[in-house]
Task: structure prediction
Amino acid sequence: MKGCEDFFLTVLHAHVICAAKSIMSKSHFDNVTDLAREIVVQYLNFDPDVKETTKDKVNLHALQVLNLGLLWHGFNNAVKEGDENRILTYYKFFLLIYKAGNCHNYYKEVINMLLQYHFLFTERQAHQLKWCRCINTQGKPGRNVSCDLHIEHLNRRLKGMIQNIHSKSPDNAIDRVAKSIGMINQVCETLEAENKVTTESTKHSRPSFSKELEMILQELEDNHVFENLDRNPTSYQHIKSVLQLCSTKELRLWIPKKVKKYQL
Result:
């Protein structure tokens, strides 16, 4: 899983660099901030009411990689920083993606969460809902992880402890271990940190993808993916602008129907 994320991040970096080089070939910028702002203006479209005008499927594919990739990257960054306001904003975009992909369980949960936060919960409950999605067990900035991933780490530790239980009353022993897993995990992490012990599930080293980045970037530049050349190859027939498949008006009619259907 981590390898797939690392490779996709390399592909995303190549698209960003290619977009920057395409813009810089036409204009000059004094700083990176102005260049980044121009990339957003020219290539990113998160408005469901503004349809993509390009008929070039290769160009549309590159724009989709850039748009959806930066959404994914921004969401991961918001989780790492524990920025719950940004996380809620990203969920609104994900709702469009889940609807386009007919991911019923996912868009049901997003609708339910947004309804609870904005309308159904008290101020205290809404505050708890917003700030309970990440956890930082290291106390350092940028080290937050999602709570469900943290639970997976605890479950892994718990399963290892259960395997080593030798008791005449295994049910009672398992119950005691489960209730103390939080403290035990903290002790184990402290010992592992002091002895510089890392495990596959908690620490990942990212190998260099410089060669792959150069290869992907060269391929993108050779094919002029950020130019509208009216290309329509057979393998790209299915490419669509995901965020623009449903307008704001359609979304406002669709959400109440789902609320009524699922009795949220």
User: Anything to note?
Assistant: The chain has a mean pLDDT of 89. The beta strands are 134-135, 145-146. The radius of gyration is 23 Å. The first strand starts at residue 134 and ends at 135.
